[in-house]
Amino acid sequence: MRLASLSALSLTLLSLGCSSQPQPEAEASRPPNIVLVMTDDQGYGDLGVHGNTMIHTPNIDKLHDESIRLTDFHVDPTCSPTRSALMSGRYSSRTGVWHTIMGRSIVAADEVLLPKILGDAGYATGQFGKWHLGDNYPFRPEDKGFQRVVRLGGGGVQQTPDYWGNDYFDDTYWTDSVPKPYQGYCTDVFFNEALAFIEQNKDKPFFVYLPTNAPHGPYLVDEKYSQPYVDKGVPQQMAQFYGMIENIDENVGRLSAKLDELGLRENTILIFMTDNGSAAGVSPDGSPITGAEWGGFNAGMKGRKGSQYDGGHRVPFFLRWPAGDFGPPRDIDTLAAHVDVLPTLAELGGAAIPAGLDLDGRSLAPLLRGKDWSERTLVVHSQRIDIPRKWKTSAVMTERWRLIDGEELYDIEADPGETRDVSGDFPQEVQSLRAAYEAWWDHIDERFDDRVHIPIGSDGENPTRITAHDWLADDDEQVPWNQPAIRKDPAVNGVWYVEVPVAGTYELELYQHDKPDNKTLDATQAWAQVGEQEASAAVAPGAVSAKLTLELPAGRTTMRTKLSGKGAERGAFFVYVKRVGAAGD
């Protein structure tokens, strides 16, 4: 048994049982609906049912009690890599994703993702919330198989690609590629849209992917959720983090009630999981915060978001399917991971995996049904750099062992907190796990030297809005990945890898802040280079943008911009590229 423990509240909920409406015959005979809720930066210990006596999560706790619980389930230690592995069934680096910025969070265009597979099998598919695998055609969720999309930009509200000025409340989100204003808190909006999609598609199988932005920072939430925690001695930031989770919990309750109301509960696979370890529920090293009345809770694990220790990548995974043949709710302690989700849902949904698609995960269906399961070795790592480096921030995992960074060895069954390095006692185990890592590395390195090129002015997105979030920056530490950083107008620059779809005339419109901010450029001169072609122009006094026109040949190349002349030189943080004519027009 792992570290999970039932709270008194969850035991009470379990004893109360649950009720649901009888399902229509058609609902019982069709493939199961699928709803996958994944929260952002919530760790294993940020739930009441896992032993956190401070946080209030009764609805998720109840879902836990009704579900099959994979208690040794792992993801990557950060956002985009987990999402790419989840959607592709392949190790994240194989999809071109190992960072959250710098173009290394964009899933390769040729990757076949879960919504396409389920959509081809007749599912209605919808995504509501955070994508973080590319903000431009053909990398957006609406390009990868989702038929209905309401999403924010980049990796979170207020990040650079997000709609300018969003602040979690009454924001604007891309709705099937078009910006649309919404009323309400971000999490409420995403659940509202998901519930509406479910109701609209209740008469056919549907797949709803609901990856919330919360509780990712900045930690903004109505005080009615956070202040009760402050009053109980929880540090301010953690109180806001907990408040965001409590709001998520309310919405999980609304979701479950809607499934009951529509008679869909029995034949709906409902999954709750998170994308990495806790970001604000513990101290930077993953331990409780010392000196605080309440220091947080990490379920006895070491590390938090970004860490190679279990606290960075071991997460909740609850799966409820009352009509399935999985037996009663229970814990399953077998090692599993994000790459297993695609093959599992494809099998349960009766969807064919395309011939030749080389998956790294395996279907969990036999495991869920109590069948024999052969042990395996899994690897996760965090590579927040341009080119991955061998052994960096890595964990090689088996049922018993964790090899950390190729050096430290922990017996996870005897020492789940990873407190005693036993590499000296088990040198043969270290050697075996190192060999497994070497084979894995040779398997995932095929895209390390590739660049994802963003099409500019393509038929799929013309004009194309491109942002500094996806720069390969001149200084890796200076990527302006969020709007608060851009508001400081840093003197930084970088290069985009782009693709010109057809030869022709292209108009580039350069902004220092995004269009809605209407900020005057701090420059007297604007310049841009795409491949070998350059253009420059004087910036008129009071101008909020600068327009440049280039004749560009088709092909893959790079793009760089410059705004200069008022004491500082910087790249344009936002560029709108429009194809205004094809060659020969």
Shape: globular
Q: What is the helix content? A: 10-25%
What's the total helix number? 13
Q: Would you tell me which CATH topology of the largest domain applies?
A: Alkaline Phosphatase, subunit A
CATH architecture type of the largest domain: 3-Layer(aba) Sandwich
User: How many DSSP E strands?
Assistant: 27
What are the low-pLDDT stretches, counting only 5+ consecutive residues below 50? Answer: 1-25
Provide mean pLDDT, rounded. Answer: 94
Alpha-beta content class: alpha+beta
N- to C-terminal separation?
A: 69 Å
Look at the structure and name the CATH superfamily of the largest domain: Alkaline Phosphatase, subunit A
Describe this protein with a few key phrases.
single chain, 585 residues, Alkaline Phosphatase, subunit A, Arylsulfatase, C-terminal domain, Jelly Rolls, ten-stranded mixed β-sheet, disordered N terminus
